[in-house]
Design goal:
Blueprint: H1 2-9, E1 15-20, H2 30-36, E2 39-41, H3 47-56, E3 59-65, E4 79-83, H4 88-93, H5 104-110, H6 120-127, E5 129-133, H7 147-157
Parallel strand pairs: 4-5
Antiparallel strand pairs: 1-3, 2-3
Amino acid sequence: MQLVDLHRRTAADQVVRITLATDTSGRLRLGDVIVGGGFDIVDSPDDEALERRAESSPSVIRAVRRWTLPDTVSADMQLLVCGLNPSPTSADRGVGFGRPGNRFWPAAVQAGLVSRPFDADNALRQHGIGMTDLAKRTTKRPANSPRRSIKRVSSESND
């Protein structure tokens, strides 16, 4: 949740320095963690280089905050809600399904899945419900999402 907090405190397109703790497992794809947090890596090392850095010592990576939503996920979540990609309204509000008229949050509250609408942190911490997007690029309509992004994610998920 530290990347989520950093994302919320940072303006879009601002460059930040992120210190990554040592990862002794060597299996964590740190580049995916940074992108999932709503950032792009500035110096663009590949995942293997990031893993080598993380295995040897803490690393500092320069990243730029993107106009998107950070993933709210944890190892002990019970359910992962996956949207296609953030809308401008959701990206501005900092919460998925944030467009007026979107029925996700009212339905989730009425079904008893969450207790507070438009609060992804509470959904994760209190109810074990995480949120992510298939594509991180913010667009007005899903049809405007770059097909390459969706095809890339789709092919990676089939590996």
